[in-house]
Amino acid sequence: MEQAALGVIGGSGFYRFLDDVDHVELDTPWGPPAGPIALGSLGDRQIAFLARHGQAHRFPAHEVPYRANVWALHAVGVRRVLAPCAAGSLRPDVHPGDFVVCDQQVDRTRERGSTYFDGPVVHHAAFADPYCPELRGIAVDAVRAEGVPVHERGTVVVIPGPRFSTRAESQWYRRQGWDVVNMTQAPEAALARELGLCYTTIALVTDYDSGVEDDPSIAPVTQDEVFATFEANVAKVRRVLLRALEAVPAEAGCGCAALGGPPPMPPSGAS
């Protein structure tokens, strides 16, 4: 199988990346991924792209086949992943259209297949710093070079979905000091860590979640608002990714690979 060491996972409204690609259909011990993997070239480097939700947003956040998605990318050789996502702002100074290169994560999801190590092989992944520091720095530089407002750090709280937060939930997240809210960063980032992949996200802020408390004119988020804002900014996301991918060094200078576990056991009944 053709190998691509660099991978991109596309979020809401981001369903294709490079133009000249070959599509690879494959299965995994955790079932099929959300869609085919698109393999293409960027200069002399092979890039793998997978739409997290599938084409036309087939899978809502709580039904995304996360284990199959990450496993499939690993199977075609991917070892470093850039994974843009949509996020709601929890701060009045983080505006729609801004990018946040998150450095921390709070997982409040439930009932998702969140690990490859369900036994009998056991591995407790080190996850104090969820995102690759080297890729984070590259992403920040790429966003800044494109002239897009960027927040170099931020904590993303990941909610179950598919509904958005209540006002009380959103206010509680703000009081905790968290910066943006999203539905898909967990368990995706943790699964990448279990396989020893470098992984970072670039969160595109699409809304103010349940509104800004001291500005009643800002209404709570709707699905249409999220999709419209992401669509209006997807060209910026693509430019940032292209710039970042070109800057990724051939040899990783981080320790992400060493944090991966032993080869996981396929689930019972898998071929």
Short description:
By secondary structure, the chain is of the alpha/beta class. The protein has helices spanning 66-75, 133-145, 167-175, 185-194, 223-247, and strands spanning 6-10, 21-24, 37-42, 45-51, 80-82, 85-89, 99-100, 104-107, 150-151, 155-158, 180-182, 198-200, 203-207.
Describe this structure in words.
Helix content is 25%, strand content 20%. By secondary structure, it is α/β, with parallel strands linked by helices. The chain has a single domain (6-259), classed as 3-Layer(aba) Sandwich (Rossmann fold), CATH 3.40.50. It has a seven-stranded mixed sheet, with helices on both faces. Strands 2-3-4-1-5-12 form a six-stranded mixed sheet, sandwiched between helices. A hairpin with a 2-residue loop joins β3 (37-42) and β4 (45-51). α1 (66-75) runs parallel beside α4 (185-194) and α2 crosses α5. The chain is globular. The mean pLDDT is 93.
